[in-house]
Specification:
The chain is mainly alpha-helical. It contains 6 helices and no strands. The protein has helices at residues 7-47, 59-72, 86-107, 114-135, 138-142, 153-159.
């Protein structure tokens, strides 16, 4: 046991690990639900160049869409379908964004944060005591310690916001 990581360090690591697991789960769910949207956006930009895309989307929506397209860096991998009306594809993209956001608004607040918060509470309760036992100094153990705040859905919203609401150019 004398060569093992001290309890206070394991507690901090476990707290961080639990949070990272929740973030990873949310990221996987987001990517799964956005997969078809990413393909549609890529198809749109294959059919319509950026200069003429303003015919289909309002300027602020187009800027957001271009940023997402660049961020996603979607490869089409020859998944193009037959001829598609670009206007219809633009409407489909807007509707897909809305459907994703509606699902996301329901799903994200329901993510279970109880394990994360249990780890954070244990960290807050025992970290200083365990560190004091390890370093044999109350002053050193308390130096720089900050309580971990309890995780909330707002923390997840900060990491995983909704997709932007898109407006078509004729709206």
């Amino acid at each position: 046991m004398s060569f093992d990581t001290p309890a206070y360090m394991r507690r901090a690591r476990d707290m961080e690990s639990e949070w990272n697991a929740v973030v990873s789960m949310c990221r996987r769910q987001q990517q799964t639900w956005q997969e078809v949207i990413r393909i549609k956006v890529a198809q749109f930009f294959v059919r319509v160049n950026i200069a003429t895309a303003s015919e289909y989307f309002a300027s602020e929506s187009l800027e957001a869409l271009i940023c997402l397209h660049e961020e996603w860096q979607t490869e089409l991998k020859s998944r193009t379908c037959g001829p598609v009306n670009s206007r219809r594809l633009a409407v489909d993209i807007r509707n897909s964004f809305e459907r994703f956001n509606n699902r996301w608004r329901v799903w994200l607040p329901e993510v279970d944060l109880s394990q994360v918060n249990a780890r954070r509470q244990a960290y807050n309760d025992f970290y200083v005591l365990e560190k004091e036992c390890a370093v044999r100094s109350a002053q050193v153990a308390r130096a720089g310690f900050e309580q971990a705040p309890m995780a909330t859905a707002d923390d997840l919203w900060g990491l995983f916001p909704e997709l932007p609401a898109l407006r078509l150019s004729n709206e």
